[in-house]
């Protein structure tokens, strides 16, 4: 009996999960470097229901579907709009295929899109959550950061000097399957076997995206699109609830036949 | 008399099965590439009734003994294409399917949510290679372009061409898993279907139709239930009241 309810229930559950994902996207519409998530649904293979068939005295089978399942979520790694901040150490990647490589305070190598860098007490370039840029770049005491070029080279101006000197090179990482990356919070991702091995490269060379200093990549959540999806999900939710209700009415009738 | 009970009951079963098909369709309104199932209710083969009284055999007429749900048919009409902007989201306009290599053999899908695996092969969401005309397609780093005819190019170099398979109209397609279908007959490469890159084809479930079908199924079910009740009441009268000797 419960298998009769299952398709409608799976539909209701799927739309609920979709609404959760949309809500999370909306909450992050102002998060630097956030990548919108998408619910990935798949139809479940049919179940066999036995009913009588024409031209046969034996019972035959009719293939009826059995609902939907959420496979998981995938990230939309498309480029978000780039916004000017004026801060030299705000770095944006101008292209969707690349991540900054960092080491988290827990010692894990992680990959991020948001390049909100600052200099910590030891002169190292860090993200706001304390993750260190990897390979590390140290700004010596008394040296002022002058500019960052599109190839990711950081130039500093030592006290008294007139010519900026290169202090370090930022490298980017990319993956065959960025959707296989595991999100660990704070907009950070870690590599997994599904994502493939990271490939490192120098920005603005051999097809690698360039780095823009003084800019940040905003969230790529499209508010209008999410709103439309929310309405769709609500309607689909109602339709599935209606299917459940109808099925329930029908079973109720069957049960009340001799009362 | 018993026959009417069977008929009413078979109608209830058929309408319940129909309702199940509709709710399965509704649960998949957001499943890309999902094809809705359409089901109809049909008579059992009719039979002739005759009255036999000794040597006198007279034809009464034909009767159907029950109804049943037809094997649901896959509605292969085009779903709406929705732009996603993802380079590896592909949609087919036309009657063809993407060809997927799985351990169970070739399977076919309209769900174009593809990605690269760790060997940079084009694969489905659950990791099975999407076939080109020359087998799996391996995509080197760079900008991926998919032409409307299915030709895959990276940095203007042709890598391969997607194998789009078409089936004759009477082919039986069977949903297996992850929005993929198998077919009982071999398909042929499509010459007419086009591919749109950065788009996904939505489910072709028609909500309005599903809701109205659901209302119809519900009412037909109630009607059959009422018929069952009346047949049951008549039978009760026949058994208990006719020929009753009043005290």
From TrEMBL, chain B:
Boundaries of every Flagellar hook protein FlgE/F/G-like D1 domain copy: 91-154
Domain Flagellar basal-body/hook protein C-terminal: 197-238
A GO CC term attached to the entry: bacterial-type flagellum basal body, rod
Keyword field contains Secreted: no
One matching Pfam family: Flg_bb_rod
Alphabetized UniProt keyword annotations: Bacterial flagellum, Cell projection, Cilium, Flagellum
UniProt-annotated location(s): Bacterial flagellum basal body
Segments forming domain Flagellar basal body rod protein N-terminal: 5-35
One GO BP annotation of this record: bacterial-type flagellum-dependent swarming motility
InterPro entries, per the entry: Flag_bb_rod_N, Flagellar_basal_body_rod_CS, Flagellar_FlgE/F/G, Flg_bb/hook_C_dom, FlgE/F/G-like, FlgF, LlgE_F_G-like_D1
SUPFAM superfamilies: Flagellar hook protein flgE (SSF117143)
Family: Belongs to the flagella basal body rod proteins family.
Name of the protein in question: Flagellar basal-body rod protein FlgF
Phylogenetic lineage: Bacteria, Pseudomonadati, Thermomicrobiota, Thermomicrobia, Thermomicrobia incertae sedis
